[in-house]
Amino acid sequence: AGTPGLFKAKLTAESATVRFAEGLDTPILGYNGTSPGPLIEATEGDRVEITFANRIPEETSTIHWHGMPVPADQDGNPMDPVATGTERTYSFELPEGSAGSYWYHPHPHGKTAEQVYRGLAGAFVVKPKADPIPAAYGDTVLVFTDLRLAADGTMPDNTMVDLMNGRVGDHVLVNGQKNPRLAAPFGTKRRFRLYNATNARFLRLSFEAPMTVIGTDGGLLEAPIAADEILLSPAERLELIVSFDKPGPATLYTLDYDRGWMGAGRPPDAGLTLLTVNVSETPAESVPPLPDKLRPIAQLSAPAVSRRFVFTETMAMNANGMEMGFLINGAAFDMNRVDIVAKAGEVELWEVINKADMDHPFHVHGTQFQVVENERDGQVSKPAYLAWKDTVNVARGETVRLLLRQDRPGPRMYHCHILEHEQLGMMGIVDVQ
Ligand code: C2O
Ligand code: CU
Ligand code: CU
What we know:
By secondary structure, this protein is mainly β. The chain folds into three domains: 6-127, Sandwich (Immunoglobulin-like); 135-283, Immunoglobulin-like, CATH 2.60.40; 305-432, Cupredoxins -  blue copper proteins (Immunoglobulin-like, Sandwich). It contains three helices and 30 strands. It has helices at 112-117, 160-165, 419-423, and strands at 6-21, 24-31, 40-43, 47-54, 64-66, 87-93, 100-105, 122-127, 140-147, 171-174, 181-186, 189-196, 203-207, 211-216, 219-227, 230-232, 237-243, 248-255, 273-283, 305-318, 321-328, 340-342, 347-354, 360-364, 369-376, 379-381, 391-394, 398-405, 410-416, 427-432. The strands form six sheets. It has a six-stranded mixed sheet with strand order 10-9-12-17-14-15, with no helix packed on it. A hairpin with a 2-residue loop joins strand 1 and strand 2 (24-31). The two termini are 35 Å apart. The structure holds CU-O-CU linkage and copper (II) ion (2 copies).
């Protein structure tokens, strides 16, 4: 456990050059010149002060603290741009109980998708004051990004197909590298935090070693739960314990997942090796057991209001070519329009209905929610565990019901986290009063 105090850092969004392939220089945007940006680790109770310098050529940017319980005016919203050549300091407190796997990325109006795929994203881990997970497991952050390289080493701009489906790249990188290698002694357990920081790639994953889910976006579950595979939609995070129970290489790899695709050419998902852990013959010394209770989660209940959000896609040919609309309740995002007004401290039931032809991961700013029900073809099911989340996949034809409470006043975004869809309008504003 860290000592609560003042956590200060500086993040500069700037141009940099990275060598992903032999002999090719790739221009990127990076926080402090790296992609992903520096791993930020603070502790519950800390006061955070992060100075952001925007050095991106001729662009506005912001930093949004994805999933974190920060005041609305410190959250890097589209209406609070930071012009190139200027700085601002974001400051907020990390309340008790806020430990979790968050991240940070820009959120400037209309430019989020491009700034993120060019490299601006990083992990922000908030540690609890007392951690029930044995320190001997380590704590390894794995940030997945999705790279597309042209023959000259540059990252091509988004095409029409990218805007429709979301940009899916050619190489999934882990902490900026292709198939990095780690080592572990035989018999050990390791803790991993998995981040889907891609714009639009769904990651259905499995490990060649037993996996146990211990946490989601907003921190630990009540109890560990074994899993053969996991699905991480864009922006989701999971915490896993992996037991390296036999010597030899154990890989983290992808399985196929059909998330709906417009037009031909859905890029293949299956069979990518993301990470290889070389498990040695030498056994680990003593491996502390994983506790069977992690922390209590208070179930949200008795919603005062219920609301409905319907996702649709529209496609129309006109004189300018194909016009696409990605809509919530029939409307595209307008920065100057408040879509709904909510009361701080009141529990609400949100019903998110996907009437479109693709899956859309739904995300809300400023708080964590609890999924209570999924419905598909008239079949209602409950999630396998109670969890705090800020992003949930809503598969095509599915309805997801969730409970949430916003505790801090101000405007908050909710949107599809396929960032090209967010850009094309699948976003709204809830004003919390
Ligand atoms: Cu990852 Cu609007 O955010
Ligand atoms: Cu967010
Ligand atoms: Cu979407």
